[in-house]
Amino acid sequence: MNLLLVVVATGIPGFLSYAYLSQLGIIIFSKNEKDDKVIVLSIFSFLNIGLSFCVFYWLTSIEPSKNMPFSAVIKLFIVTLIISAILTLTLYPYVLKKMKKTIETYQGKNNISIKSNQTVIEKIIDSTEYKFKAVYIFDFDNNFIESGYLKRYSGEETTGFQISLATETFYNDEKPTFNEILNKFNTDPIPEANELLLDVDKKIKIFIFRHN
């Protein structure tokens, strides 16, 4: 038990789980939520190493301890990697997504605002329901800036808000007007797939049309 607590306290066994789930956008913490991040790392570490100890003991009949022979330590390390990978790639994403969906459904039914640490643009890009995100960008004076398929972005915490557009622009000689795109936005047959992003700091409007 003492060995389990020591290993869990390092947070190492849970770091890979956290890093993977964070990259998928399933778990996100802001800079001000360091304590919450430590707690989640500890929970992942406890689950990963705890189950690994149980599986190791079941396979070898050797009780994990600080006095284990080196060969047993190597076996325990391998078991821990395998168990952590299985939990991280299968169970954790499934459970966390189900929990998130259940909470958001409850919030929607009860008209409770949905809080997220993701930026709006991150949630739009990370959405897997629609494969393509076509964007039209205007400034606050309704002047056309650019259009294309959204491909990459950077968050505010790195180099500021930046996006890259893939393939060719949607216009040739004549630039689309704000009213044309606004009409397209308001009359689209699948309105729930579209969003209008307003960046007050950068003074830009981004119409986003998602489709498959």
From TrEMBL:
Lineage of origin: Bacteria, Bacillati, Bacillota, Bacilli, Bacillales
Protein name, UniProt field: Uncharacterized protein
Species, as recorded: Kurthia populi
Record's keyword annotation contains Transmembrane: yes
Keywords assigned by UniProt, alphabetized: Membrane, Transmembrane, Transmembrane helix
Spans through the membrane: 6-29, 38-60, 72-95
Highest taxon of the lineage: Bacteria
